[in-house]
Amino acid sequence: MPTLVVTKKDRFFNTIADAYITVIRGTPLIVQIFWIYYGLAPVLDVPAFWAASLALAVHNGAYIAEIFRGGIQFINRGQMEAALSVGMIYNLAMRRIVLPQAFKRSIPPLGNQFIIGLKDSSPAAFVTMPELFMTAMRRAANQLGNVLEYYTIAGLYYLALVVVFTFLAKKLENRLDVDK
């Protein structure tokens, strides 16, 4: 029966992952967007859309990694022990036994993180990425006196998107309910 030994290679990757998660979760999204847009994008000649998309992906990736880590830790160790005792190798046991259960348990926080990620796209406007909030800012700048109207409309668009995605996340959550 294989044993679960943490190697130097595992420790190295765990240290990298911990540092990534700590830095990303410990700094504001707007700083990350600016750092990628003004620091990395000019060097790699990346347009604003891709710089903002990369920043949002890196930011949300740290939170999603923590969601999955928590989902995996929630699964009883006996599940892995049982899989190993019947001769499964570690990777197969993770893929067939632990990860499907962890994924089901992770659906509610993943739905929340998706919605947070949707709303967190608005700071991309500050690096000239034409998204919903920037469109409202440009319209408001052109129409003095109706500023609040454009921001309210942008807010209602965000609200509509959040309601739709919340509904879809609930449907998926109910379909994959582990208690059924």
Task: Give a description of the structure.
This protein is mainly alpha-helical. It has a single domain, classed as MetI-like (MetI-like fold, Orthogonal Bundle), CATH 1.10.3720.10. The protein is built from seven helices and no strands. The longest helix has 30 residues. The chain is flat. The mean pLDDT is about 85.
What attributes does this structure have?
mainly alpha; MetI-like fold; 180 residues; 7 helices
Sequence-ordered SSE layout with sheet pairings:
Elements: H1 8-26, H2 29-44, H3 48-74, H4 77-85, H5 90-119, H6 132-142, H7 147-175
- The helix-strand sequence is HHHHHHH
CATH topology, by name, is: MetI-like fold
**CATH class descriptor name:** Mainly Alpha
Number of strands: 0
The CATH superfamily title: MetI-like
β-strand percent reads under 5%
Work out the helix count.
Answer: 7
Name the structural class: mainly alpha
- How helix-rich are the residues, as a percent range? over 70%
* CA radius of gyration: 21 Å
Averaging pLDDT over every residue, what do you get?
84
Which word captures the global form? flat
CATH architecture: Orthogonal Bundle
N-to-C span: 33 Å
Largest sheet: none
Low-confidence stretches: none
